[in-house]
Design goal:
- With 361 residues, this protein is an alpha/beta fold.
- It contains 13 helices and twelve strands.
- α8 links the parallel β5 and β6.
- The C terminus is likely disordered.
């Protein structure tokens, strides 16, 4: 009987400079999934790669070296075997429980964040497009999204600043106080960048500029939020004017190096420049932090704000954890039936149930 296995690492086991080394970009995903099928014997596989985690969920043979091969496959993707000690592995109900907690936002750096639910869905969609899903992963990931939505509906876990961009803006407010006189440069035009722009505008930042490699996306976002678009090659000019630079791109390389930033410092005439880098892989070279009047914060530097948020919402987090555990127990009989090759009903709520055979296979 095949079984579900999970191998991965997250912000709980590895700092950002390690996580970025194992990130799986979209263009490498189909080849990676094919290698899992060929070399691990994974009949189904979904890869969840976000700024806070890289996890492989795979249906593998029940015994043998499947876990070792999954570890090796993930590490070999980047030719980096030094991170094996930061990987964790779960199987069966343990892997199911973990995915449900991830989808609910309970395992996020910012507990209760909404972004992770969309990221789980996107990972599943990409795996389906690559034809690497099957009966178990189809049912499991649809169930995980249902659990994630239920937790957010039935608890208050998502109240308050529960996204990385919102915490980044909270960090900016701690540094600058009111942002009414601050000029902000947001680099990127994805979902995280959009949330950051929305948060900066809600704080009435004096000027928000959006830079993106595809200028049309920057223009469209700027029109939605009353911001100012700028072409990517204008970054050095914008760097002279900005007080805060928030980076959230998918670039595999640094966009801002020590050399490129140092070249604009003379024109800034001693004004402080703050980088908030929430991208993984990082957009800003850590050596930038050594420059005079330049301050760099990355995604792991938000942990202090995260801790404060956890204290305020502990009761709701406990409720959400209990709900996830109940949903894990509900899923267990269906999972065991799947392992035996039998059919079982999987109830979504008190009024309806869905046969496993009715799920996409």
């Amino acid at each position: 009987m095949n079984r579900l296995r999970l191998v991965g690492l997250s912000h709980r086991t590895a700092p950002v400079e390690w996580r970025e080394r194992l990130a799986v970009p979209d263009h490498r995903l189909p080849g990676f999934l094919e290698s899992l099928r060929r070399e691990v014997g994974a009949g189904e596989a979904v890869v969840l790669s976000t700024c806070n985690r890289v996890e492989v969920y795979a249906v593998t043979p029940p015994e043998g070296e499947a876990e070792c091969l999954l570890r090796k496959g993930l590490l070999d993707l980047h030719g980096d075997v030094s991170l094996d000690g930061s990987l964790y592995a779960l199987e069966d109900d343990g892997a199911v429980r973990h995915l449900f907690r991830v989808s609910a936002g309970l395992d996020s750096l910012v507990v209760g964040e909404a972004e992770i639910l969309g990221q789980v869905k996107r990972s599943y969609d990409l795996a389906r497009q690559a034809q690497s899903t099957g009966k178990l992963t189809n049912v499991l990931f649809q169930r995980a999204m249902y659990v994630g939505k239920t937790v957010r509906t039935d608890t208050k876990i998502s109240e308050g600043p529960t996204s990385v961009p919102s915490l980044a803006v909270s960090l900016a407010r701690r540094i600058f106080g009111e942002l009414a006189e601050s000029r902000v440069l947001v680099v990127g035009a994805g979902a995280m960048a959009e949330q950051a722009v929305r948060a900066f505008k809600s704080q009435k930042a004096a000027r928000v500029v959006i830079a993106n490699r595809t200028l049309e996306k920057a223009v469209a976002m700027a029109e939605r939020f009353g911001a100012h678009p700028t072409p990517f090659d204008a970054l050095p000019r914008e760097l002279v004017q900005a007080d805060i630079v928030l980076c959230s791109t998918g670039s595999p390389d640094f966009l801002f190096t020590r050399e490129s930033v140092s070249q604009v410092l003379e024109e800034r005439k001693g004004r402080s420049l703050f980088f908030i880098d929430i991208a993984v892989p990082r957009d800003v070279d850590p050596a930038v932090d050594d420059l005079e009047n330049v301050y760099l914060y990355n995604i792991d530097d938000l942990e202090g704000l995260v801790a404060e948020s956890l204290v305020r919402r502990q009761a709701e987090i406990t409720r959400a954890g209990e709900l996830v555990e109940a949903k894990t127990q509900e899923f267990a009989p269906w999972y065991e039936s799947w392992r035996r090759g039998a059919t079982a009903a999987l109830r979504h709520n008190a009024r309806s149930s869905m046969s496993a055979e009715a799920e996409p296979g």
